[in-house]
Amino acid sequence: MASSSLILPQELWWLVCQELVARRDFNSLFNCALVSKDFAAHALPLLYSIHELSSASMGESTTADKVKWAKMWRAIILSSTAETAYPYCLWIKALRLGDLDTLLQDVAPYPVFRTPFFAGAMESFELVSKTSKTRRGQPILEMQKIVEKIGDTITEFVKDAADRENKSVALTSLEGLFIPTPLLSLWTSRLATLSSLTLRDGSVLTGEVAEAIHVSCPAFKELVCFNILGSTVDEDLAAFILGLRPNSLETFSVLSTNQIGQESLGALQYHSSSLRELGLSNIQKEAFPHLNALSPCDSLEWLHLESSRDGMTSKWATESKDTFLEVASWLKSCSKLCRLEMFRVPGAGTLLADVLKSPELRLKSLELSLLDDDEAFYPALGNQIGLERFSFVSTDEFLQTATPRHFAFLNSVCNCRNLRELDLMQFSMSLADLVQVKDTLSKLEEFSFDGEMLSDEIWKALKQLPALKTLNINGLSAFSFEGILSFIQFLQSSPAHRGFRLYIMNQIGEAKLSDDEEVLLGGQMAAAAGPDGRLDLTYFRDPDEEMSEELSD
Predict the structure, then answer these.
(1) What domain of life does the UniProt record list for this protein's source (predicted)?
(2) How far are the Cα atoms of 213, 295, 345, 477 from residue 162, in angstroms, in the given order?
């Protein structure tokens, strides 16, 4: 009787590949592609659709990972010149030219990597300086020109495939370090599916680029910039924002140094109904009096405001009182706001003392680093009873243990009974404070706090947090081996503590454990919390290290 091979349904292959994508298992996806042509038809498009999420692109790679990463980029590039069996560049969702630049920096110094990368049909992309050479006498790669040529080739191929051959295109995101304005206008005009743009240098954004996006990219909704510097960037960025389709921008973030101000902030009103996420870092001193221009943007779900070093000296809270009050009214009107982050914003304590009392505001996450010490802020915090995540840093000297502000603040925190993550890394907590926390915050999963000479007496309270999975103890401590061991062994009592991570960050040198004790604790943590469990024990003024330094001197 002739034997027949088992043929699995295509739907099953597809489900297997989808699971591997969810796990980001690049090696298994690649191996699946080698099984058969049918399997490759499922595996390869999915593999390239997440290529930007590989460990190599995240800076966590080994040499072997980088070699694979280089081969993937080579295949993507060559597919745009019709040199490959499959159209890999039509499967990628993100064209991350910044990652390509990083790869080229890794490849350039080593002939063993550089030569095969630019071999064969890739030779035309190896653009080198005619005047400069490396110390080994090898011509220096013209990184910017190479990246520009590759970006131009891929975007042109994508447009031709979509227009002439009616092929499906997956590309929705474009990222680059520096893309000159003319090229950016050209490339975006070719990418009809583009929805997201990320630029290291945002000074290239102008009305010209916006026009190309307006005409060619109906799904465009997200802009992220790192730096936006230049004498005309405020006006240019405003022209870009105003040149987009009205109420199309949903996410706008500036992550680092910038010179945006009144014009750009005012232009965001053009997207007041659509804007959901707004991140403004390094806000300059001159920009604070114009934050009220954002008042129409009341559909926000996430807001990040962070002052520059210069901006921290702004007196807008007193010298621009009307603006300050308008900003408070604006924040109180943002009924959809779930995540609020304010770092080193002058007057933030006074602002939030008013804002947090609003019944319209129902925050889920609040991250603060305060410069001022408005006493009214602390009781106001307790109104946000829906908080699930809270992180807090303050320069307020009156928050020390056993002061009225300390108790007011802690009472407000403990009133937020839905908290799952609580980061009070710079807030000193006593045993009584920890008892109050365990009595009220039973949902805590991650907890960080400071303290003064913490001892084994705190373990009893911490054991009574039933959902706890991560504990960061920043304060000076003198825990005994037996005390730590008792806590670790307790973790076995509930599966909720699997994967528990314990960080003891300032154990005093006088209470240093022996090497054998540390090894034993590590083994107990693995037994109690499983392979993902972790114990980190760091010493303040480690006597062994100090002795080593003295001997070296």
Answers:
(1) Eukaryota
(2) 17, 41, 47, 63
**Mean pLDDT of the chain, nearest integer:** 91
pLDDT (tens digit, 9 = 90+) per residue, 375-413?
999 999 999 999 999 999 998 777 777 889 999 999 999
Strand-pair category, 128-133 with 139-141: antiparallel
Q: Which residue, 124, 147, 170, sits at the end of a domain?
A: 147
Q: Would residue 92 be called left, alpha or beta, if left means φ above 0 and alpha means ψ between -120 and 50 degrees?
A: beta
| Ranges of the chain whose pLDDT falls below 50 | 1-5
Strand partners, 228: 258
* Cα dist from 5 to 15, 34, 43, 238, 322, whole Å: 21, 17, 21, 64, 78
Q: 201 burial class (0-12, 13-18, 19+ CB within 10 angstroms)? A: middle
pLDDT digits (tens, 9 = 90+) for 198-245: 999 999 999 999 999 999 999 999 999 999 999 999 999 999 999 999
For 466-513, what is each residue's pLDDT tens digit?
A: 999 999 999 999 999 999 999 999 999 889 999 999 999 999 999 999
| Inside any domain, residue 94 | yes
In a domain, 159, yes or no: no
- Which DSSP string corresponds to 180-229? -HHHHHHHHHH-TT--EEEEEEGGG--HHHHHHHHHH-TT--EEEEEEB-
CA distance 72 to 249: 32
CA atoms within 13 A on the CB side of 208: 11
Neighbours of 472 (CB within 10 A): 18
| Residues 6 or more apart whose Cβ sits within 8 Å of residue 468 | 444, 445, 446, 447, 462, 496, 497, 500
d(CA 377, CA 355): 9
What does DSSP assign to residue 496? Answer: G
Judged on CB neighbours under 10 Å (0-12, 13-18, 19+), 373 is middle
Q: Domain holding 428: CATH number?
A: 3.80.10.10
Residue 441 lies inside a defined structural domain of this protein: yes
Question: Which residue has 């970006």 as its token pair?
Answer: 151
What DSSP character marks residue 243?
H
Domain that holds residue 511: 420-553
Q: Is residue 282 part of a domain?
A: no
DSSP secondary structure letter of residue 105: H
CA distances from 388 to 45, 384, 441 (A): 38, 10, 10
Q: 54-69: per-residue pLDDT in tens?
A: 655 555 567 777 888 8
The SS3 of residue 309 is coil
Buried/exposed 281-312: b ≥16 CB within 10 Å, e otherwise? bbbbbebbbbbbbbbbbbbbebbbbbbbeebe
User: What's the structural domain count of the chain?
Assistant: 2
